Amino acid sequence: MRSGARPAVGNRACGVPGVGGVRCARDMPGVRRTPGVRGVLRVLGLATPVGLAGLARLLRPWQTRWGATDDEVVAPLPGDDLLPGPAEQVTRAITVAATPAEIWPWLVQMGADRGGFYSYDRLENLFGLGIHSAEAVVDEWQDLAEGDVVRANRSGSGGWVVVRVVPQEALVLQVADVATRRPLRRDEPPGWAFQWTFALRPAGGGTTRLLIRERTAFGKRTMRWLMAPVGPVSFLMTRKMLLGIKARAERAGGAAHSPPAPGSAVDGTVVGPTGGSGTVFS
């Protein structure tokens, strides 16, 4: 090789020293290779399925219980019995400086053709859902009963059926065949059932804990694998929804509320006796 010549990294003879008089950089003594993706993963111990599974297990508890306390994660909520196990369960929560009566109207008017979902409208509309989240409570959208459909898109081709309503306490929805208003079952196509629960729990001082629980039952293991990527997306959208409902309810209430009592959970932190806080979840 001439002095100053660059090694032919992209040469087809790479890996066969001496072919064509040119050697690959990786075959030349003293030349260091920049580690590729596989190399980085190997260093981190993630190059094997076991390593990747370990990473997933590490991250999953945080996003599947964002803001929720230990008690809230395991506590039974209205409607849990409507989608019996085995089912995967996710519970996320937030503290809202408003009463259940002030938050409830925002839940009742959810729907693509009504008040939206208070999440990332622009992202949802990239898929043509036609969602526009309301900034005010609309009287015409306050009637919601069991058997009604909450539409997922403006066309009305998908959505949930209301399976339980406990005013100012819980709203439970299940993915359904909107034409028949019948919830989908795990033992029929597409092979999964999904339940969405919105629960309100008074927390004292005029505040409320808003919980959103997802229960998913799969008929086949392959469907569980296919749906796995939905988990992180669900977290992002649900977190934004919790924050969106909180902001709207607090803004609409407008009244000053007493600070939460020491030891209560507020947005993933525990309020200390002097007003300080410590993280509940890492």
Which terms would index this structure?
single chain; 282 residues; alpha+beta; 7-stranded antiparallel beta sheet; 7 helices; 10 strands; disordered C terminus
Radius of gyration: 26 Å
Q: How many distinct helices?
A: 7
What is the helix/strand order?
HHHEHHEEEEEEHHEEE
In total, how many beta strands?
10
Helical amount among residues, as a percent range?
A: 25-40%
Main β sheet profile? 7 strands, antiparallel
Fraction of residues in β-strands: 15-25%
Q: Structural class of the helix and strand makeup? A: alpha+beta
Question: Can you describe this structure?
Answer:
The protein starts with 36 loop residues before the first helix and ends with a strand. The protein has helices at 37-43, 49-64, 70-74, 100-108, 121-125, 221-227, 230-253, and strands at residues 88-96, 149-151, 159-166, 170-177, 182-183, 192-204, 207-218, 265-266, 269-271, 277-279. The protein has 282 residues and is of the alpha+beta class. Helix 4 (100-108) packs across helix 7 (230-253). The longest helix has 24 residues, at 230-253. Strands 1, 2, 3, 4, 5, 6 and 7 form a seven-stranded antiparallel sheet that branches. Strands 8-9-10 form a three-stranded antiparallel sheet, with no helix packed on it. Strand 9 and strand 10 (277-279) form a beta hairpin. The protein has seven helices and ten strands.
